[in-house]
């Protein structure tokens, strides 16, 4: 620790004696540091910036309204880090955020980054709310600091697999995943649900989250004549995959999860996006309680919403609402308030179950029609 860093910590501690808050000091106003981590460079940067901007919009609004904790007006400051959607980088980023003194983290975006980072936050008692990590393993670890505001993959995969067989009429299904915690985890759940609904899984293949050439995999799958191909992964792989399917003359329906259900997918896949079906946890933006208002203010400031921005926005508000109830930004004090959350957000009512998962979530199916994602059906899970 440098002498400079030690200096501001001593000053902050002296000014907030008895509060226990980990704050910096800018003039007379204590500054509370909030962390955000997502891929801000690379092929998933459009999604990472979407998360960052959702957090920033909420943080700016909270600061504009004024936030008082422990009898003092405080200012929130965002520390945003690029984890590159990489598990190893994510742990480095998490430790950096902890060392910088953040009192809470919104992130990470990808399950593969969120899961290893969650141990570091847990070890340092820093609350973490992911707006987009859906892998079951994230909250299954049992860390008391881990929460998410989005439906998990056990729910999403079950809906996808069942929908493929019962609504899309797929008797023979091929499954490909990108071998990330998200992609493989979702694919596993889809496979179970397809079989439970009476469908046959005729192929199970895998690639990576950096690949763009899927011809060998698809050629192998084509010979098994699937009615439907499910891909567990993100849009930078999903778009070239469906284009290559069509180049091979494969007529099978292409089905994806939330990593595919983005405007960027349509942009990358072009005309081959037409007819693609994908799911996304939660309600369609226009059906969210605060969706229309959020869309107007977000897009006026940052442009088109890619996917998870409303959840990142809600996660930031949930974190601060817990601080308000505890009247402190000290994680040792406000962490106990997070499990009590009952917050009416843009995305809907947010409550957590005993694991930190969203209670009573929903999953919506979409299809690309006329170059746009159009909602097909919303399935709500039990409360």
UniProtKB/TrEMBL annotation:
Transmembrane segments: none annotated. The keyword Nuclease does not apply. Keywords: Amino-acid transport, Signal, Transport. It comes from the Bacteria. Belongs to the leucine-binding protein family. This is Branched-chain amino acid ABC transporter substrate-binding protein. Residues 34-372 form the Leucine-binding protein domain. The lineage of its organism: Bacteria, Pseudomonadati, Pseudomonadota, Betaproteobacteria, Nitrosomonadales. It comes from Thiobacillus sedimenti. Pfam families: Peripla_BP_6. The keyword Signal applies.
């Amino acid at each position: 620790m440098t002498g400079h860093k030690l200096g501001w910590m001593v000053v902050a501690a002296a000014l907030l004696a008895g509060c226990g808050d980990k704050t910096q000091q800018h003039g007379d106003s204590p500054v509370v540091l909030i962390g955000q981590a997502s891929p801000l460079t690379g092929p998933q940067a459009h999604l990472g910036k979407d998360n960052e901007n959702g957090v920033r919009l909420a943080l700016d609004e909270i600061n504009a309204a004024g936030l008082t904790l422990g009898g003092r007006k405080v200012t929130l400051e965002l520390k945003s880090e690029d984890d590159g959607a990489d598990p190893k980088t994510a742990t480095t980023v998490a430790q950096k955020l902890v060392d910088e003194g953040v009192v809470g983290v919104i992130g990470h975006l990808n399950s593969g980054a969120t899961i290893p980072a969650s141990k570091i936050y847990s070890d340092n008692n820093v609350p973490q709310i992911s707006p987009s990590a859906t892998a079951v393993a994230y909250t299954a670890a049992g860390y008391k600091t881990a929460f998410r505001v989005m439906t998990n993959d056990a729910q999403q995969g079950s809906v996808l697999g069942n929908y493929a067989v019962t609504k899309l009429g797929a008797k023979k299904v091929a499954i490909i995943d990108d071998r990330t915690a998200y992609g493989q985890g979702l694919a596993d759940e889809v496979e179970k649900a397809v079989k439970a609904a009476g469908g046959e899984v005729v192929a199970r293949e895998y690639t990576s989250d950096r690949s763009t050439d899927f011809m060998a995999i698809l050629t192998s799958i084509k010979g098994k004549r699937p009615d439907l191909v499910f891909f567990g992964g993100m849009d930078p792989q999903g778009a070239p995959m469906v284009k290559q399917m069509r180049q091979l003359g494969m007529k099978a329906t292409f089905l994806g999860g939330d990593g595919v259900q983005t405007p960027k997918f349509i942009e990358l896949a072009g005309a081959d996006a037409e007819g693609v079906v994908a799911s996304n946890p939660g309600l369609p933006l226009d059906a969210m309680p605060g969706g229309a208002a959020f869309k107007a203010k977000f897009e006026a400031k940052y442009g088109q919403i890619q996917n998870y921005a409303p959840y990142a926005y809600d996660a930031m508000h949930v974190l601060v609402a817990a601080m308000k109830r505890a009247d402190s930004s000290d994680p040792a004090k406000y962490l106990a308030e997070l499990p009590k959350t009952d917050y009416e957000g843009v995305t809907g009512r947010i409550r957590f179950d005993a694991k930190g998962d969203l209670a009573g979530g929903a999953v919506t199916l979409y299809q690309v029609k006329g170059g746009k994602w159009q909602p097909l059906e919303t399935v709500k899970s039990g409360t």
